[in-house]
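To illustrate the input format used throughout this study, we show a single complete record. The first block contains the structure-token representation of the backbone; no residue identities are included at this stage. The design step must infer an amino acid for every position from geometry alone.
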């Protein structure tokens, strides 16, 4: 085992369904191990053990499970949290084999020490995807997927899954066209731009109305067809 191995010791669990609340009250988290069509193993561990394992492994790093004399290599496939207390309630492990490719959810990160031009212009970089689904042998599963954000310069610029720097031995399963990040104008700047545009439009309308008024004052009456024009003296009488 390498220094990066994550070891998790579990206990067999006989308590199911109705007894789970009591189990959690004692500081234990119920879990299950699915193993290639075999009957699932019901297990448990302390809150601290499973919280630490999930924090270290996420859903992409293999973990070495020990249940009594039985050992498994597995991935964490699902974690259920209480929506109000945000406490871990249940964990699902999927047993894997070293020589078989597996699917996993890998976090996406920006290339380190890379400036984002859009942020230097006080523009908003909206993150739209934090993880991507990949397929690889367990030993080839990366801890993260890297993307270069330097092309995010102006409003409307974006980077997609296709821009990910793909590690050797890894296949990206997520749609390559799915956006990872997009440049938008901050709401305060957008409101200011809208106000400026509205003011310019109002000024343009006022200028147009003024031009129309000047044209109307400068116009002279044209005699109707067949009617003789009046001389200055006639107009005075």
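Output of the design step:
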């Amino acid at each position: 085992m390498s220094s990066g191995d994550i070891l998790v010791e579990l206990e067999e669990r006989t308590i199911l369904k109705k007894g789970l609340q009591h189990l959690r009250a004692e500081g234990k988290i119920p879990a299950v191990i699915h193993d290639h069509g075999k009957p699932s193993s019901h297990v448990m561990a302390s809150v601290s053990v499973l919280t630490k394992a999930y924090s270290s492994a996420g859903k992409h790093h293999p973990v070495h499970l020990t249940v009594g004399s039985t050992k498994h290599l597995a991935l964490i496939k699902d974690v259920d949290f209480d929506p109000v207390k945000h406490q871990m309630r249940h964990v699902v492990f999927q047993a894997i084999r070293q020589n078989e490719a597996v699917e996993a959810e890998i976090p996406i990160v920006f290339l380190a020490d890379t400036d984002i031009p859009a942020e230097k212009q006080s523009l908003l970089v909206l993150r739209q995807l934090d993880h991507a689904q990949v397929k690889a042998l367990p030993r080839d599963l990366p801890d993260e997927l890297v993307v270069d954000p330097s092309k995010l310069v102006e409003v409307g610029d974006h980077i997609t899954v296709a821009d990910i720097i793909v590690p050797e031995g890894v296949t990206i399963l997520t749609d390559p066209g799915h956006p990872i990040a997009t440049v938008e104008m901050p709401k305060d700047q957008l409101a200011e731009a809208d106000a400026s545009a509205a003011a310019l439009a109002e000024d343009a309308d006022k200028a147009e109305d003024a031009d129309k008024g000047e044209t109307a004052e400068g116009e002279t009456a044209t005699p109707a067809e067949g009617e003789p024009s009046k001389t200055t003296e006639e107009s005075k009488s």
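Structural context for interpreting the output: The mean pLDDT is 86. The chain is about 25% helix and 35% strand.
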